[in-house]
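WARN no homologs supplied; continuing
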Amino acid sequence: MKVAYILNTYPQPSHSFIRRELHALERGGAEVRRLAMRRSTAPLVDPADRAEAERTTHVLDLGATGLLREVLACALPAPRRFARALGLALRMGRVSEVGRLRHLVYLAEASAVARICSREGIEHLHAHFGTNAAAVALLAHALGAPGYSFTVHGPEEFDAPRALSLGLKLDRADFAVAVSQFGRSQLARWAAHETWPRLQVVHCSIEPGRFTDPPDLPEGPLRLVNIGRFAEQKGQLLLIEAMARLRETHPDLHLSLVGDGELRPQIEALIARNGLDRNVTLCGWLDEAGVRRELAAAHGLVLPSFAEGLPMVVMEAMAMGRPVIATYIAGIPELLRTGEAGWLVPAGDVGALVGAVVAMVTTPRARLARMGRAGRERVLERHDAEVEAARLAGHFRAAIERRAGAPVSADDLRRAREQAG
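OK structure emitted
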């Protein structure tokens, strides 16, 4: 089975879950071609990410001249087919926040993708995220590439489904994947009812072999860790407000922030304004080994997000035997249960967040350890990379087999004649 993964920017420090999925698919026997539109501007600190960068074709490296050649190579032999794809690009661009010109770029990228698929015998396309990667997959299919599917994580797709033409992408896909049951429910809002059976759930996952010996909880004052991109939706500014309140009664409490992003200056300013330099450490992006070291040094993970999909960092913390404080949003309650492996709080409620941290501080360490073990058992049972990749591969095979066994229609014959010029 030869599958092409369509991605916007890959690899990225925050997309290790995609890398794990790709590797699990390959261990299961699939051949996966990595086609990213652009290179990451973030430094790749993890050796595994650097290795992935070497294996990935970055379409925009072709430059304007190279992309124009790909467009002409698609348009000249089959002008009617190209005109239909152009119409789809303009249709999506008309409602999009980024406009028609950007979608013409997507069409050029799709031309390159379609040509690679033709040369290499790709049997299926799969995009991660329902944003521009899914648009490129849709347009590549319209240009003659095989059928496509895509994984929707949220929250971006759920914030602007009309502007992203999410319904169009869903209706034309062989199937679509949500990472949680909540995510599937949101896709059902925009997919035609008759396509609901094509909406699948495949969880994000971890590799249990990397979490075989979870460390004991450390001694000393409570240490928390937050991991993620410094962005509005992740809630780090609210977390710093909570730390400012907590310092009055718990002066030894410490928080490590692992990550980086556009909100870093604001986070630094808020830390300084509240005199939290000794209580909060900014770690920057770390490789996977560094993330595990921070989790091992902490008593728990805190994730005060305002919007999420199904956070990998929660899974990793649970696999490390660490209790979690997180917000009651999106797919998180499907993974984390209050009182069993941590605490769920309302999003945006700094008082509730403070209360959950105080509850963790005052919970006996033996009880915290039991909560960590309960979370570990749950995540290892529900989020094994090999199991989830096998489920996804099964959907790929079913889609390929459906296309191979489908009766030839008049439209199919017409498209075949057009492809032959």
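The first helix runs from residue 16 to 27.
OK
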